[in-house]
Design a protein that fits this description.
globular, homodimer, alpha+beta, DNA-binding, 242 residues
DNA sequence: CGCACTCTTGAAAGTTGTCAACTCTCGTGG
DNA sequence: CCACGAGAGTTGACAACTTTCAAGAGTGCG
């Protein structure tokens, strides 16, 4: 199986719950109809009325919101294996949109498909519940990050989190991973200007913590980066209590 | 019935779903055993192992997190009628604590009581689900607020939200409500210094938008305040879709 | 090759934080 | 009844952080 065909969604579920082979196959089967979406396109537009319900197989995307004055705030990243809105039985209010940050391969599911999947496999359902909880904890963590830390720590924390999440789905090799997020997007994520993001990245490089060239990020000193960012990954590794 | 005895929790549920009288009585009955907690005390400590599961009847509280360097970030306010952690069937990870911002009257529930309540009344269960969704939307809104708006708009938005939420539980009279949150706490909420919060409040007063004296906040020009803050309360008024 | 997008840089301005002191209010104890 | 002390609000001067504006350099793709 070519690397690009690895089912990151299955992989993510397996990092949260243990799946029987049959459950895994079930998950594989549901993901046959994949869409290709170019970078910068909306996967779920602001005026979406029917709910998103998608799974990201390849590429990066983000949940964001436009503000008065032309600014934009990114409120979450979606990396391969992540899902969006899979559990919500509610008119979404549609105050947020989802945009592809890179070219993306994704699966859009009908409500019936989601409920069928959850009914056929309680373990998958549990995994989705956990994923949703982690998503919420991550949101809280971002609030703490943006509200409480200066630029250097803030960006460092973002990288720590990305590193951790990408490891969970097998996208980190030798402390190196693809980081195709532009500095403009990082700025809209961290609540900083792109110019300041640029200077902050330079400082992280100068301190020997990371190497960032093209779209490839290398963590040179993970320990030091964690300390700088005060990174405590507990929120990313919740597990079922029962 | 004295004003202080109004059941704000019931009132909040009724703003989300329509409750039969029997459901309402059921809610009333569960809230007999109320605790009094003084200001500044932890309602749910960081090291809490058994989950919070509480309902706030009177007073203000906040969910917060301590950061390296002595800073503190508040991630949510609890006002009368709000609940905490009622729906979570998961070890909470306990990376957050809940503190009373004022003297507080609250109810702590056992897991069994919560599930019994939800089983006996599907409408109450639905209300709790909605409340949880609103909580999450509010969290996202705070991220947007802190990440994307300058101090003046940020504080203004906070007040718009408080105004709206307190109206929902009948705690606003003639554009005036009790606002017992100190400037230090506002600072930890907005990611600003207390000195800057002070100056920002003065600017809001100077512009004739609010009057703030003692613990009483008056909205002098709600329209203008909403415009300044770019306040769109959609996120606070989700309703059941089905 | 040339365009579009991204990254980088410098200088100046604006916003926000820090420090330190002073005032005000209110509840407690003398 | 008044003095006291703790917590909260206010102020000024200064420093630090971050943004804005503007321009140039690098990169990849049609």
């Amino acid at each position: 199986m070519p690397a690009s065909k690895i089912n990151r969604f299955r992989r993510k579920l397996e990092s949260l719950v243990s799946l029987a082979t049959t459950d895994g196959d079930l998950v594989d089967r549901i993901l046959t109809q994949q869409d290709l979406v170019p970078a910068r396109a909306d996967l779920v537009p602001h005026d979406d009325r029917e709910g998103g319900r998608l799974i990201l197989m390849e590429g990066f995307a983000c949940r964001y919101r436009n503000l008065a004055g032309g600014r934009r705030q990114i409120t979450a990243y979606l990396v391969p294996g992540d899902s969006y809105d899979l559990d919500v039985a509610l008119e979404s209010g549609a105050d947020h949109a989802v945009m592809a940050l890179t070219a993306v391969r994704s699966v859009r599911l009908a409500p019936a498909e989601v409920s069928a999947l959850k009914e056929e496999s309680p373990d998958v359902a549990e995994g989705l519940r956990l994923a949703e909880r982690i998503e919420e904890a991550t949101l809280r963590e971002w609030l703490v990050n943006i509200g409480g830390r200066p630029a250097l720590e803030r960006i460092a924390h973002l990288f720590c989190e990305l590193d951790w999440r990408l490891q969970a789905v097998g996208l980190v090799e030798q402390d190196r991973f693809e980081m195709p997020i532009t500095q403009y997007d990082l700025a809209d994520t961290a609540g900083l200007s792109s110019v300041h993001v640029n200077r902050t990245l330079q400082e992280l490089r100068r301190q020997g913590l990371i190497a960032l060239a093209g779209r490839s990020l290398t963590i040179l000193d993970r320990m030091a980066l964690h300390v700088l960012a005060d990174f405590q990954p507990r929120y990313l590794c919740l597990h079922a209590s029962v």
